[in-house]
Amino acid sequence: xxxxxxxxxxxxxxxxxxxxxxxxxxxxxxxxxxxxxxxxxxxxxxxxxxxxxxxxxxxxxxxxxxxxxxxxxxxxxxxxxxxxxxxxxxxxxxxxxxxxxxxxxxxxxxxxxxxxxxxxxxxxxxxxxxxxxxxxxxxxxxxxxxxxxxxxxxx
Length: 155
Prior knowledge:
This protein is mainly alpha-helical. The chain has five helices and no strands. Residues 1-9 have low confidence and may be disordered.
């Protein structure tokens, strides 16, 4: 009998905590957007007077960091692909399969973008800024359009 009482009291405490969180959210939701903009502007204003810092003088110095960050983005795309592959046997899985296929294209274009960077060795054709921009724009357009297209599919 005591266990049930403890469980109920825990449940009520959790509900009370959720209600408290909702009250906080409602409290700040009443603040008008112009007040948020003014507050954030005042918070970030001191950065205007900070001296400029140059992290990378030459584009070749940026290549290792750029490669690392692009490979992290590719890893996220590969995680989506892996999830879609492992859930392929579930029923009503058409959306996830199409999402996985879309993120496969994203991963491949991200790798193409990483390999096409100017300071990297040539990737199929000579590397240029136009080639890098093409790959990154293609990848970002795939990343934005695929979930929208998948959401329109009826199950």
